[in-house]
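hey so u asked for the seq, here:
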Amino acid sequence: MDNGEVLEYDSPRPRSTGSYGGTSIHITALDGIVNVNSLFTLAVFVGLAWNPSDPTDGGLPSGDCAAGNRAEERLVFFHVLAFASFLFSSLVALSVRQAIRFVHPPPVGSRAARINRAALRGGILASAVGSVFGCGFLMMALVNVVEIKLGRLGCGGAAAVGAVIPLVTLIPAAMLIYTAIVFYAFTR
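ran it, structure tokens below
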């Protein structure tokens, strides 16, 4: 299974000629994924700690436009899915990072190591997919927060619709850019 290529290992100036590529760049990218996922996971925990039915949290809509229990259930559901996705992504990224560092250490006196390029790409791709799904689920949870706090979107409330439009346009746009960049890096 070791169809690994010789890659520059943890060098401050990685080489990228021929079959060489910089694993320090990959380690930095994996660290970035873990750091961003950590921030999003914190947001998920804050969202799960919030009780939408709290009577002291005034200003909740009432009547026909109130979101109801179903929106609260979806809120928790999407938060849990986002947490699972971010955790999956972080664990895969950390595993790939550890594999780069410890499974294939460079020979003594060398700064090059044999890295299975397919496994490296697969791990980075799996981690990126987990992050994208986590962002999607977090976006859906935020839509439910808007419905709980400002009323159902079907009621046509300007505040609810105005709050959701940036969510459903900017987040998918950012995920498309992220996916395009990961795909570009994956094919190089």
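Strands lie at 5-8, 112-115. Helices lie at 23-49, 69-103, 117-150, 158-187.
lmk if thats what u needed
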